[in-house]
Structures are given as structure tokens and as C-alpha cells.
Write a structure and sequence with these properties.
The protein is an alpha/beta fold. The chain has 2 domains: about 120 residues, Aspartate Aminotransferase, domain 1 (Alpha-Beta Complex); about 240 residues, Aspartate Aminotransferase, domain 2 (3-Layer(aba) Sandwich). The chain contains 13 helices and 17 strands. The strands form 4 sheets. The chain has a 7-stranded mixed beta sheet with strand order 4-12-11-10-7-5-6, with helices on both faces. A 4-stranded mixed beta sheet has the order 1-2-3-15. A hairpin with a 5-residue loop joins strand 8 and strand 9. The longest helix has 22 residues. The chain is globular and about 60 Å long. The C terminus is likely disordered. The structure holds pyridoxal-5'-phosphate.
Length: about 400
């Protein structure tokens, strides 16, 4: 199956060949409910008619130009993203990792511009995940990802919610930037509290540290607001986006606030492909849907799914906690979620497993009420086949603060 491809992924056996909305169809014709959405990407689901028409049209006009030429769609997407996020300028990328690289370079450049070039270090949060390139990997907390690639950029990690330590570290280290995921996706769908996000904002302002919010997973409406940090009323200096931004086409963005919009000088950062007419056309279809009220649907379906998951928590001792916001939800179990995820897959519901013991549930924004009910029924039927505890695995269970 994986012939000729590097063995970096554990892939499932099915070959998915089509889909509609939150449903995926494999090569045998079997349908699955897709509550993973290509890892929190396919916001408009599969087989979206308007997206297909726009892409067909664009392919017949111009697909690629490079950034040596202007294109109206690139500028329209930039302007609309900035309006939705209180930012002033965008740098487009092809992925989340690249958006993080842009943010790191921008922070370093901003320090040089201020005459504080000695401020080169970064502070990030424990359980954070920011990508796989050497810069983004340096910020990623899980040692499993970093260890084989040492040495990496020095990063100081602070535990989420530990405001006192964060204050001490920012005041003493004077880093270039603090990097935060307002909802930690790979870290187990942990929602950072509004008081912590606000305190981080205040501390960054006080110490002249750039506040970078990585909203690659939590942004673009997944939590019911365009940015997760908007629930807390916090505006960072820089925000990174990717995943659903172009409804499944590879695109990311690093957005900077007014004070940092002109940080880079000409030629200091670039990308051959990024922000081209094809991906921007897709992004415009997504942003049109957002404008038409898609995030209201995220809020409604999110509330429905959450209350169903909370009922499952009451009914099944194996369920430890329901986490998340909007349609970025996690069901934390009392033991590894791996076997439960496989059983759900077998039963026709696609989700994945994050942080070992959490089922990550991130359906397309266009998921319907009846599909949410079906997913809850599949979860109920599957959880019923599992014991409340798995004694062999429980011995190794992580000691994690609730
Ligand atoms: C919060 C966060 N940051 C960065 C990344 C890296 O994005 P990409 O895989 O598009 O490079 C991810 C990917 O899962 C992510 O969830």
C-alpha cells in the first residue's frame, strides 16, 4: 500500500474515493461518518458543490503565478482575514508549520528592528504542538517528536495556567516571543482559561515580548468564533492559521497586528507557491460561507455534540472528561483511547486519538444535526463494549492535572 512512500505515517486500510458533507465513501462503497475532517481541515465537508465549481473555474483561468505578481484573490483573502482577526497584514504559506516558521522569523526580525537583537529565544507551553520543521519542532513539547532531531533551538516551556512561572520567565529571559495555542489540539483538546490568556497578553505587553497565538487548529471558526482567543477577548501580536482556511487545499497564514505588519523588509521571507490564485479562490469560498453564518452552525452543532458527550460521560465510567469548544471536542478516557478509536472506525465513525487518552472529535462545520445524533449513537454502542478501566494500561496512566 505504502510502496515508494516514506514510512512516516500509520495509515488505515480503507481507500476513500469520494464523499458528501460529513460522509466519506471507501472504494467498496461503504460510508463512514467523518468526524475527523482530515485532522480538523475539511470545514465544508466533502463534495462541496460551490467549492468544486469555483476550483473548476479557476483551474481554467490561472492556477499559479508566484509572488512576483499581484492577484486580486490574494489581496481579498488577506483583507478579509485581517478584518476577522483584528490583524493588519498577512503572509501566506502552504501549511501550518510554515506559518509558524514565519512567526518565529518575524519575532526575531522585530527584535532586530527594535535594536534588541540579543532577544532570540522563545517561550512555549507544555503540551503545545506547533509543527515538524526544525523551528516549529523546537517549540513542540512532546519529547518523542523532538528527541531524534536534537539539537534544536533552545525553548523554555511553562505549564499552561502557571501565570506566576510565566511572569518570572518572561521578565528574566526576555525572549523574542511567547507562543501559545489557545486550545491545545495535540495536547488533548485542552482549552486554556480566559484569565491565563489575558495574563499572558499583559505580561507580553509589559516585557516587550511578541505574543504569538498558534490558531492553526483552533482558528478559522472551529470553536464557534473565528479565533479561539476571541472567547477570552485577547488580541495577540501575531496569529497563525492553516487547516480549514482553504477548505482542504494546502494553505496557511501568518497574520501580524498593526505594530508588526511591516516587520519584514523586501526579500527577507518568501514562498514560491503560497497564496496563489487557486488556494485563494478556495479560501474565498470558505470565507463566503463564514460570512453567511457558518459559525452559527458550528455553535449549534457543537452544543448538541457536547451535551451528547456529557451524557456519555454520565453513562459510561470509562469516560473521564469532555473537553473543548464548538466543534473542537475531546472525550478523555480513563485509559488509552487507541482501541476505542479503532473500534469506532470499524463501526463507521472516523475520529482520532490525541495525547494518548483523548478521542479528538472535529467534524466538518457543515455536519448536520441527525449526523451528530448518529455519531453519538455509534459512540454509545462502541463505548458499551469496553470495560471502565484497562488494568494493564492504567498502571502507566499519566498523572495529569484535571
Ligand atoms: C496547533 C498546530 N500548529 C501547527 C501545526 C502544523 O501544521 P501543518 O501540519 O499544516 O504543518 C498543527 C498540525 O496539526 C497544529 O495542530
Amino acid at each position: 500500500m505504502d510502496e515508494g512512500v516514506m514510512k512516516t505515517y500509520g495509515r488505515a486500510d480503507e481507500v476513500f474515493v469520494g464523499g458528501h458533507g460529513a460522509v466519506l465513501q471507501d472504494s467498496t462503497g461503504r460510508e463512514f461518518l467523518d468526524f475527523l475532517a482530515g485532522i480538523a481541515v475539511s470545514a465544508l465537508g466533502h463534495g462541496h458543490a460551490e467549492l468544486a465549481a469555483a476550483l473548476r473555474d479557476q483551474v481554467g483561468k490561472v492556477v499559479h503565478l508566484s509572488n512576483l505578481f499581484r492577484h486580486p484573490y490574494t489581496e481579498q483573502v488577506a483583507t478579509r482575514l485581517c478584518a476577522l482577526t483584528d490583524m493588519s497584514a498577512a503572509f501566506f504559506t502552504n501549511s501550518g508549520t510554515e506559518a509558524m516558521e514565519c512567526a518565529l522569523k518575524l519575532a526575531r526580525r522585530a527584535m532586530h528592528n527594535r535594536g534588541e537583537g540579543e532577544r532570540t529565544s522563545f517561550v512555549a507551553l507544555e503540551q503545545g504542538f506547533h509543527g515538524r520543521s526544525l523551528g516549529a519542532l523546537s517549540l513542540t513539547w512532546n519529547e518523542k517528536y523532538r528527541k531524534p532531531f536534537q539539537p534544536l533551538q533552545h525553548v523554555t516551556w511553562v505549564a499552561p495556567e502557571d501565570t506566576a512561572t510565566l511572569a518570572r520567565v518572561l521578565r528574566s529571559e526576555k525572549p523574542a516571543a511567547l507562543i501559545i495555542e489557545p486550545v491545545q489540539g495535540e495536547g488533548g483538546i485542552r482549552v486554556l482559561s480566559a484569565p491565563f490568556l489575558r495574563a499572558a497578553r499583559e505580561l507580553c505587553t509589559e516585557t516587550g515580548t511578541l505574543l504569538v497565538h498558534d490558531e492553526i487548529q483552533s482558528g478559522c471558526g472551529r470553536t464557534g468564533r473565528f479565533l479561539a482567543a476571541q472567547h477570552a477577548g485577547v488580541i495577540p501580536d501575531v496569529v497563525t492559521l492553516a487547516k480549514p482556511i482553504a477548505a482542504g487545499l494546502p494553505m496557511g497564514a501568518c497574520l501580524a497586528s498593526k505594530a508588526f505588519a511591516d516587520t519584514f523588509h523586501k526579500g527577507e521571507h518568501g514562498s514560491t507557491f503560497a497564496g496563489g490564485p487557486l488556494v485563494c479562490r478556495a479560501a474565498l469560498v470558505f470565507l463566503d460561507e463564514v460570512e453567511r453564518g457558518l459559525l452559527g452552525q458550528v455553535q449549534e452543532r457543537g452544543a448538541q455534540l457536547r451535551s451528547g458527550l456529557e451524557q456519555l460521560q454520565r453513562d459510561f465510567p470509562i469516560v473521564r472528561e469532555v473537553r473543548g469548544l464548538g466543534l473542537m471536542l475531546g472525550l478523555r478516557l480513563h485509559h488509552s483511547a487507541d482501541l476505542v478509536q479503532k473500534a469506532l472506525h470499524h463501526n463507521g465513525l472516523l475520529v482520532n486519538c490525541t495525547a494518548g487518552d483523548v478521542l479528538r472529535i472535529v467534524p466538518p462545520y457543515v455536519v448536520t444535526g441527525p449526523q451528530v445524533e448518529t455519531a453519538l449513537q455509534l459512540l454509545r454502542a462502541t463505548l458499551a463494549t469496553f470495560p471502565a478501566t484497562a488494568p494493564t494500561e492504567q498502571k502507566n496512566e499519566k498523572k495529569e492535572k484535571p
